[in-house]
Amino acid sequence: MNCKFVIGKYINLPYHLIFNLLLENLTQIIKGCIAKDHKYQKIVYEQYRGFALKTAFRYIYKYDKAVDVVNDSFVKMLNGFDAFRFSDDGENEKILMGWLKKIVINTAIDQLRKEQMLPEIGGIPETAFALADNYYNADKAVLYNDIITLVKQLQPNYRVVFNLYVIDGYSHAEIADLMDTTIGNSKSNLSRARAILQKGIKKMEESHLCRI
Amino acid sequence: MQDLDNHSDDLFRNAAENYRPSPGANDWDKIAPLLTNSDSVNKKYDIRYKISAALLLIILFAGGGIIATYFSETNSNNNIKITDANNAKKSLVAAQQPENKIDEKNSKNNSSVTANVFTASASVKSISSVEKKEKLESNSLHPDSLTFENDAVKAPNLKPISPDLNEMVIAIENSAVLSERNPEQNNNSDSREINVLENKTIAQPLAKVHPVTDSTAAVAKTSPSKTSLLKKNKMSSRQTGFYFGVLAGPEFSGVNTVRFDETGFEGGLVAGYQVTQKLAIETGLIVSKKIYACNGRYFKTDNISSAMPAGMQVLSVNGNCNVLELPLRLNYNIVNAGKGNVYVSAGVSSYVVTNEYNKYKTLYNGQNKEVTGAYKKSASYFAATADIGIGFEKKLNNGNKIRLEPYVQFPLKGIGVGDLEVISTGIHVGYLLFPKK
Question: Across the interface, do A36 and B39 touch by the CB < 8 Å criterion?
Answer without folding.
Answer: yes
